[in-house]
């Protein structure tokens, strides 16, 4: 996980003013998940991050989505949810997977920008997936974690037309300018990419 600067408020105000001129009947339905917990990935459980820890956006219209970024939390699952829910932490990810069973929590809508890459450009263009565990403790990288994460990544790639390759499915360590090392050398990329290639929605 990491932090990044938020979008300037002025841009949001201008967007609101522009929308006010559109006839009501032409507007798409409001993002239901903001209120009711509807998720972008059917298997996910909605566990909202604080609104202070993300940037509201209209992706992929506002920004192209062409990357999935893989993280390892360095915190336990419940502790990570608490961090995302704490408005002082200034950090979030779209998804968090639990080590033991591969359970998927969605914390930020895919249309919004989560703050996980530590790089504004990469935050705007990516979906961030956190995995419960520690980079030097591969026992956290369970079969269930790999399998469920690969299914989620495949779904994201299918829905946005992202190639299922290592140029587009990257580790936090590969984000330009980062000082983070996750998911670390214990993460089995060969196995993971094979699972992503086999998975479909
Ligand atoms: Zn990370």
Describe the structure.
The protein is α/β, with parallel strands linked by helices and 201 residues long. The chain has one domain (9-198): Lysozyme-like (3-Layer(aba) Sandwich). 29% of the residues lie in helices and 13% in strands. It has six helices and eight strands. It has a six-stranded mixed beta sheet with strand order 1-5-4-7-3-8, with helices on both faces. Strands 2-6 form a two-stranded antiparallel ribbon. The longest helix is centred in the last third of the chain and has 18 residues, at 143-160. Residues 7-35 have low confidence and may be disordered. The site of zinc ion (ZN) has 6 residues, from loops.
CATH topology: Lysozyme-like
- The multimeric state of the shown protein is single chain
Approximately how much beta-strand content do the residues carry?
5-15%
The CATH superfamily is identified as Peptidoglycan recognition protein-like
The CATH architecture? 3-Layer(aba) Sandwich
Order of strands, widest sheet: 1-5-4-7-3-8
Shape: globular
Biggest β-sheet: count, sense, barrel?
6 strands, mixed
Q: Can you count the helices?
A: 6
Unreliable residue stretches: 7-35
Number of strands: 8
Class computed from helices, strands and strand pairing: alpha/beta
**Average pLDDT metric:** 88
Q: What share of residues is helical?
A: 25-40%
Radius of gyration of CA atoms, rounded to a whole number: 16 Å
The succession of helices and strands, N to C, reads HHEEEHEEEHEHEH
How many distinct folded domains? 1
The ligands found in this model are: zinc ion
Distance linking N and C termini: 26 Å
